[in-house]
Amino acid sequence: MEIRYITKIDIETILDRHNIKYQSICPFPKSGQKAVFKIICDPNPIILKIYNVTPYHTINQMEYVSHVDVDELKVQKNEEIRILTMIIAREVKASKKCPIFPKMIITKDIDEYRVNEHLYKYYFEELVDGITMNESSYYLEENSISQIAYFLDAALELVKKMWDKTYVHRDIKPNNIIIDGERVMFIDPGLAKSANDETLTRTGMAMGTPRYWAPEQQEIQSNYNWTFKTDLYPLGLIAIEMFLPELRRLSEDQLKDMQFVYKKWCEKDQFDKSKSFFRDIIVKLSAEKIFRRASSIEDIQKTLVEFKESD
Amino acid sequence: MLMIQQGPAAGPKLKKIIDSNFCDGIIWDPRDLTSSRINQYIRENIEYEDLVKVMEFKQYYQQFDNSDKKKLKDYPEFPKELIDRAFLRRQENLEELVHNNIDFQQSVELDYLCTPTFYIESFGHRIIERVLETWQKNITYMNSHEDSNPLFATMVISENAFSNYDYINEFLEDLEDFSEELEGVYFTVDRNEMSSLRHKFDLAHLTNILQFIYDLKVMGFKVIVGYTSVEGLLYSSVGADYVGTGWFYSLRKFNRVQKGLPPEKAFGIQKKRYTSIKVFSEVPLQEAIYNVGARSHPIILDNCSLDRELILETPIDILNSNDCYLQHFEEMYKYVQIFDSLPDVSDKTNKVLNLLEEAETNIQLFNNLPNNTYTINSGHIKQYSDAIKSVKEANFI
């Protein structure tokens, strides 16, 4: 059975179900099982997120098996659907619990949409004003230490708010950061994990973009005690890319090699202020060993104050 | 900050140091002073009120069969059984150790409480699990008794444990779980070599000790390092909040053998020494100052109260030993205060490197004085300097 991608007719059917009269539909770049659309409608534009949760793997496997146990097939299909639904379920749960994420609208829960054997789950979300970080001036222009300090302070405030609700995003990357003037927001909490959640055992699914992942995310650990420190790690890497844009073209290994990065950092700026920013901020966000990262978000924000005024 | 590492023959020495205001705190040793005697000291001198007071119950003496426990064995709270694997396997033993340890510390007015102290040969040994378990029990016990006193995880660590950082990394990962509940870590390094070169250090060990202190500080712990000499300034430079030092050599360099067997018998009469950061060493007064005469003064003497006697060439036998011990505190306190006043670890480590560079020059100058037969060993200066540079490089300082 081939993967079936969402069509305009599917979207119109879904919108019709909820009596939404649209003016236009703009697709965002597709990623994995998720398709996201911006729906221009009255009174305000909204976001429609659709996840393909069809159990292709189980269905395709059964094509090659002559004798099929119907009950077993049903159990396997349901299990695959459950796993594929995990990310959308997490995303919705996080948006309900954490005030920093865009709010779910129109429906109270995730809805289903079927086309023959193809199964999709979807929900609507408020549209957040702004642009993703990699389209913003933070990524298109050269940044000073002071500008980076302002960005980090705002981003750390979000990490703090998530952690207040015991949430860890685990997939902070430029694509998941929205910039609106001075306002910074995180989106797509599909990998967000609450310290109170049930254990997630990874199943080999591709989750997120490893470039910004912390070392502890790259090992399969079923009962890992996640803390905000995992969210500090990508912020340090993003700050490095803001200061040294040429590193965006280099490999993940080079970006995460702090001795290599420090050399480049000092080549760009030899001033003590810049070096102490690297030591007191970057390393405390992106140290390979988790115990070397800052143990308090407030403390690192306090340290940032002096750098905000540094230019 | 500088703490007195209290040890034997404390009476007049304590009074001199405290009256001279050459320290910020004191680490009481109940092996040599009973709690009632400690309380008497505190009652009799108002100066104690302003000092940070800690007392280590030294349960690790019970990890060694033939150790000299002195007064420890007389306390009902001190463990009676040998602390070995069998002992540590029983949960009720750990609980008793914790309760007794807290009860004992409550007999003295203290600012920081210590966990029971274990001797750690290696961070890879299984005892680490028991140590962490004991700390957890200590925290639980204090919470259940609504005791909010700041608690320090306390241990004596063999210098060999610092030969490789892999196990230390694992230990620090575990320690992270305690960062909310523990105020800090108080540790003493058991210097396992008995070199006649008193300041000599293995470079890898020293580098890892400095990294350990730096990491503990990054993790938000307060750090006390016990039983130090001039290398205590290196510890201060990478972030140690307090370093402990004492009057006798055995209180400035912890050694397990020495601790079990009384040092007086093993080493005979102590030489009177002068601690000079100008040469980053404790030099023997007779050989380095008296025999060399006035030419040694500008190189070694560092503006301490004792200098007057030395310049006047007061016969060495007339010099009061306690005044020589006081000079050590005066010199150490002066420099620890300089480090405390510097704003960050970069300034502190740069300062210590400058001091070491000056010391190297001064030692060269001293050793090349005409007709001088005594040589100040400078081997440790390079070790200290290399260790600090390694830590600076590894941590972008």
TrEMBL record, chain A:
InterPro entries: CC_SR_Kinase (IPR050339), Kinase-like_dom_sf (IPR011009), Prot_kinase_dom (IPR000719), Ser/Thr_kinase_AS (IPR008271). This is Serine/threonine-protein kinase. GO terms for cellular component: cytoplasm. Keywords: ATP-binding, Kinase, Nucleotide-binding, Transferase. The keyword Disulfide bond does not apply. Residues 22-305 form the Protein kinase domain. Belongs to the protein kinase superfamily. Ser/Thr protein kinase family. GCN2 subfamily. One of its GO terms (molecular function) is ATP binding. Pfam families: Pkinase (PF00069). Coiled coil: none annotated.
Automatic annotation (TrEMBL), chain B:
It comes from the Bacteria. This is Uncharacterized protein. It comes from Saliterribacillus persicus.
